[in-house]
Queue: 2 jobs
Job 1
Amino acid sequence: MYQDIPIKVTRVAQSRIGQVDFNNLPFGVEFTDHMFTADYIDGEWQNFQIEPLKPLSIHPGNMAWHYGQAIFEGMKAVLNPEGQPLLFRPDKHIERLNNSAYRMRMPDFPKEAFLKGIKMLVELEKHWIPKGEQSALYLRPLMIATDVHVGVRPSKTYKLIIMALPVGPYYNKPLNVLVQTKYIRGVEGGVGFAKTAGNYGAAMYPTELAKEKGYDQVVWMEPKEFRYVQEAGTMNIMFRLKDKVVTPMLTGAILPGITRDSILHILRDWGIPVSEQKVDINELLAAYKRGELIECFGAGTAAVVAHVSNLHYEGFDMGFDASSWELSKKIKQAITDIRNGKVEDKWGWTMSTAGALEEVVIS
Ligand code: COI
């Protein structure tokens, strides 16, 4: 039913694109001209529209600010070699957004409306898609509570917004990472699997402490024994042990990464053994000392594949120099090539926006 919903499109009078330096695109700074929005009122989503991006006027009593009903996604669109925009796995992103919504007692957003709206937005903003191989149009769907109310209960109204940002790489260098043995991120039964704002807010203090000591990021550990690895601050984490790749299994405490899932597909397709399992830090350290832990890398939409140059655990540095990043470089290229439409998309992960604005009246 929602594939037929009307989406009103209102264009900006004057685009800002001429003010943007596409040769210098730090992550998260520049926004395109338009956003997709919808409102949840009286138990249903309505007011679907693409409109000029502008600040929202929000009452100080807005419940999202007080009680944390705020969830988001991060996804990417790029241009294929023919210059046509391609979205990467948008169906998985709306599925994950709705899983986050369910856990935070927020309403489902209809998949058909999401796909239709995001395709129209990207088609409208296609001139903003940067051309560099590691650049992209980063899409940030966000759902927030909008009831004005003091007192803890789920909001009855919500807003969904999709913003678009032309971005370069999230990380410009390999990462020096600290295994965190005091603070925790997620527990089984908690909200670790949800992309909810509070998970990121709670991570800031321990991450800043690590940065003060010269680290770029932390690796979170399961909270009972601080023995099993969970994920890195902004991405999932993978280890190459000789010719096998291991990664923490999804327990509900960690984010079910879409890049993580894509990499596992690619590795299995290449015949490389992969294991989603409990990853014991002591076993990693022992393997490193035996020369069997060859590579460590992060996997996320923003980060894509991030090489780890050092993993620090309780006084011990596990260093990985650039000559060891053989498999992670190959994976990064493979996922980038599929995303950019340069090689066969055998799993049907990319979605074209072609035709998304046909028959749409733009005012
Ligand atoms: C993403 O990878 O898209 C995220 O949302 C992570 C965030 C830290 C930028």
Job 2
Amino acid sequence: MAGWAGVAMTERLERWEADELGPAKVAFLRLDARVSAIVVIDNVALGPAIGGVRMRPDVTAGEVARLARAMTVKSALARLPHGGGKAGIAAPPTLGPADHERVMRAFGLAIEHLVDYIPGPDMGTSETSMAYVHDEIGRAVGLPAVLGGVPLDELGATGFGLAVCADVLSEAKVLDLCGARVAVQGFGAVGGHACRALAERGALIVAVSDIKGATANTDGLDVAALLAHKNASGGIAGFPGGITVPRDDVVTFDCDIFVPAAQPDVVTTDNAGKISARVILEGANIPITRQAEAELAERGVLCIPDVLANSGGVICAAAEYRGAGHGEAFTEIEEKIRDTAGELLDRVERTTLPPRAVAEQMALERLHEAMALRRRL
Ligand code: NAD
């Protein structure tokens, strides 16, 4: 780790406001002279907080706090017996495997006393990282299958959940999934499985991007061939079954459904007016700014918010924590997302509020009910 100057996360602490929900607890941890971490346990009224560990050199306390709040809302909306939390580890960008293991084990020991926080994988951490934490303190989700984990990215839990949302919209006649034209930004764990699951339901995947480029075919891309091309070449560039288009054109591509499954803030008020999709299924976290969501709602574009659309991952993690296997976890994803999406659609029809506000209202109702029964949060 030579050359790493170290970043004291407290020096870059962004301002954030505590409110009636949380945070319940914030811990700043120094794992060694050069690596610091923060854990935000936002709200535990419904149960111990599940949340990923993000390892990035520039992770900030404010970002971790916002993500922890998103987990509170997501878990409450899915009626999970869990609260929301998140952790960030500000580690050097080029940690080798031995240093990664050392940092993760140190992180595990440092959070041993934070019994209300159950860590899982996020950007920069993996199933293996969680195995090290679990080995130290017996508490983590997103474990390798050999340790009883349900490998949610490999199995496509979040992509499956997105497709279940699309099923509910199709059954409610909001859209006809069979033949619907879908554009997907990101072809990783979420985007790749979403493409597969939506194509299986008869949708046409007309455009897909990854970090390096994009491919399109108005007759529908062959998703299995595209996955094979990506596995062989490392990306979707040069896929012979589509034409190359500029990467960011996928966001405003002519389609019925847009699935952002890569980065935050890809739709802003700058490009919201150019969105042609009638439905957006938010696979990534906060892919659309609040102002852009409001603008899209006014134009009649239905945005199914991240807290519902991408909740397959946390539902799967909660099932794993309980000791459930793959089949049970996927049944639960289907049941929970169906219930919540159905209720959301009903409520959206009866109000002028955008779907995100309605989803937050649903989560808040559950949180308030639970908080009224708790003496200490
Ligand atoms: P991943 O790393 O497996 O895949 C990300 C994909 O996005 C890659 O194909 C990458 O090339 C692409 N990408 C990155 N920047 C891009 C850009 N500017 N334009 C186009 N493509 C770009 O990550 P993932 O697990 O699929 O997660 C994607 C998003 O979904 C993240 O925001 C993540 O926080 C969120 N999310 C993931 C899960 C999960 O279960 N994995 C659950 C909930 C939310």
